[in-house]
Specification:
Largest sheet: 7 strands, mixed
Distance between the termini: 30 Å
CATH topology: Rossmann fold
Number of domains: 1
Helix content: 25-40%
Strand content: 15-25%
Radius of gyration: 16 Å
Bound molecules: guanosine-5'-triphosphate, magnesium ion
CATH superfamily: P-loop containing nucleotide triphosphate hydrolases
CATH class: Alpha Beta
Length: 205
């Protein structure tokens, strides 16, 4: 897929104010600072589309973008941000979980995992929650340019093995770098493929 247009639509903290769910939607989520915004900018080829920062916790809202006037891309706030209060964290949980559970046009959740690290409990717990709720997700390992491919592959394998304790099958995986653009085309191709199967939820409503 070629990204011809990528436009920011809106930022939200309220699930009932989201855009009409008439296009297929893909959400990007992961630990704070994992590289979500960088990946979104690299995928769309638009440097300033999603705000990036060296300070974790930059993205605090549900940010909707429309790509090629054909599908929604969503940048979600990062989880596991240590520098925030318990109250903030539980608010995050409530509104993100509500969004993920209620968004009728959500086709796939891309869970971003930092490929530099061994499997982290917070990521595994989140994947398990998605599995329990029957939400479709895929794994995107980020920042592959930061270490050798052997190291990245080891961490991907470890994550896969950890998930196999709970799952019969491990979801599709992508090893990526926003710097080198490694692994980005396969993600766009996957989205393209899913888009062909999309039927808008109850259009008469
Ligand atoms: P929050 O919105 O704060 O949760 O962060 P985020 O997950 O959106 O991360 P962001 O894209 O802002 O990136 C965090 C830091 O990691 C920035 O300094 C990026 O430049 C860096 N980074 C992100 N992706 C890559 C990558 O593929 N390679 C390298 N080398 N650095 C990356
Ligand atoms: Mg961000």
């Amino acid at each position: 897929m070629l990204v011809k247009t990528a436009e920011f639509i809106c930022s939200n903290t309220q699930v009932d104010k989201l855009p009409t769910p008439n296009l297929p939607e893909y959400a990007f989520i992961g630990r704070s600072n994992v590289g979500k915004s960088s990946l979104i900018n690299a995928l769309t080829g638009r440097k300033g589309l999603a705000k990036t920062s060296q300070k974790p916790g930059k993205t605090q809202l549900i940010n909707h973008f429309v790509i090629n006037n054909n599908w929604y891309l969503v940048d979600l706030p990062g989880y596991g941000y240590a520098q925030t209060s318990k109250k903030n964290r539980s608010d995050w949980e409530k509104f993100i979980r509500k969004y993920l559970l209620s968004r009728a046009n959500l086709q796939c959740i891309f869970v971003l995992i930092d490929s530099r690290h061994e499997p982290q409990k917070i990521d595994l717990d989140f994947c398990c929650w998605l599995g329990e709720k029957g939400l479709p997700f895929m794994l995107v390992f980020t920042k592959a340019d930061k270490q050798s491919s052997v190291k990245s592959d080891q961490n991907v394998s470890k994550f896969k093995r950890a998930l196999l304790k709970w799952f019969e099958e491990v979801p599709q995986r992508f090893l990526t770098s926003a710097e080198t653009r490694m692994g980005l085309l396969p993600i766009l191709e996957t989205i393209d493929q899913i888009n062909t199967t999309f039927i808008a939820p109850s259009e008469e409503n």
